[in-house]
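#lab-general

N.A. 3:47 PM
ok so I finally got the sequence cleaned up, no stray characters, all 410 residues accounted for. can someone with queue access submit it? mine expired

B.Y. 3:52 PM
send it over

N.A. 3:53 PM
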Amino acid sequence: MDYVPYAVPFFLLAILLEFIFGWLKNNNTYRLNDTVSSLFMGSLSTASKLVLIGVGGAIFYSIETYYALWRMDDTLLITWIFAFVSYDLCYYWFHRIGHERRIFWASHVAHHQSEEYNLSTALRQTSTSFMLNWIFYVPLFLIGVPAKVFVSVASINLIYQFWVHSQHIPKLGWFELFFVSPSNHRVHHAVNEIYIDKNYGGVFIVWDRLFGTFQEEQDDEPCVYGIRGPLRTFNPLWANLHIYFGIFKDFIRTREWKDKFNVLIGRTDWQPDDLAMKYPREEYNPATFNKHDPKVGRFINIYSFIQLIILAAIGPIIVEYGGSNYYVSLILVSMILFTMVSTARWLDGKSGMYLEIVRLVLLAAFTLLYFQYYQNNLIIVILMTYILINFLALPILKKSLNNKEIYIHE
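B.Y. 4:20 PM
back already:
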C-alpha cells in the first residue's frame, strides 16, 4: 500500500507550521518563488504518473512472477523488518550513484535545485525517475520481497525523509549515530566542498558510516544549498531536462566513442578532454555564489501563488473525471505543465504574456472538447471561470512590466 497520498495533507500543514515558526522566530527559511517552484515540481511529479509508463513496475512484476528465488511470507513481521532495512540499503546505493554518475544525476538533480532548505524542499521531486531508478531495487524482488511489502516500505521510507528537510531542528545526539536526521541531511543538500556528495541514507545513516560517505555538520561551516551549476530559472520543464540536454550536447560534440560512452556513465564532474579545452565548465566559487531571486512585483507573487493553489484544488477534481481516459489525462498533464512554465516565467522576472495567451486559448479549446464528450457542467464551469479570471489578470501583469515594477537582482 502506498501511504504517501494519505500523508500529503500533513506535509502541507507541516510546511505552514514551519513557515509560521520561522516567521515568529525571525528566522524564516521560506521564499515564495522558491517554494512555489518546489511545490510545482512535486505536483508535476505526481501528475506525470498519470501518463508515463511504469517500466520498473512491469519488470518487478515479471521478476516476482517468474524469476524470484522464493516468495517471503508477507504476514510475518520479520519479512517487513527485513524489507524495510534492505530497501534502505538499496536506496543508499541508488542515492549515491544518483549523485556520482551523470545519467542518474540527470534525474535526481531536480530534488537538489532549491537554494533554500525547508520542508517544501522535500516535495521537490523529479518527473523522470521512471526510466532508470528501478534498477537498484531488482535485488529485492529476486530474493522474494512481495510487491505489496515493497510498495509499503518504500512509501514509509519516503515519508520519513520529509521531516529531515528543516533548518530549525538542531543536532539530536545519539539518534544521529543510527538514523538520518535534519542535521546530517542538511549536509547532504549542501554544496560546500566539505559537504558535497555525503550522507546518502534514507532512514539509516549507518550505511554512510560503513561505506565512508558520512560527514557531520560543522558549526563553523554553514550549509550553502543548491547545485554547483545553478539553474537560474524556476521553469519546471527545464529543471527536469537540463542535465539530459547537457549530456546530449556533450555526446554530439565529443569525438572519441569511449568519451561518448563516458558522457553517459562517467562521474558528474567529468568532462571529455576535447570539450574541457573548448567548452570549459565554470568552477564553483562559494564566494561569488548568489541565489536566483528575481525581485518581482507583488501582483506577480500573488498571481503565482494563486496558480499553485488552483492547481492543487482543481487538479484532483479533474483527474477524478478524466483519469480513466489516457488522452484526457495526457492533455491534463500538458496543461498543468504549461501553466507551471508560464507562471515560472513571471517569477523569473520575464514577460509570460504570449505564453499565457496560448495557454488559455488551448485550455478553452480543451474545455469545449471535453464538454462535447463528457458534458459535465461542474468541470466546465470551473475551467471557464478559471480561464476568464486569468484573462482579466493579463493586463495587470503587463502593466507591472511596463511600469518597471519588476527589478532583477542577481
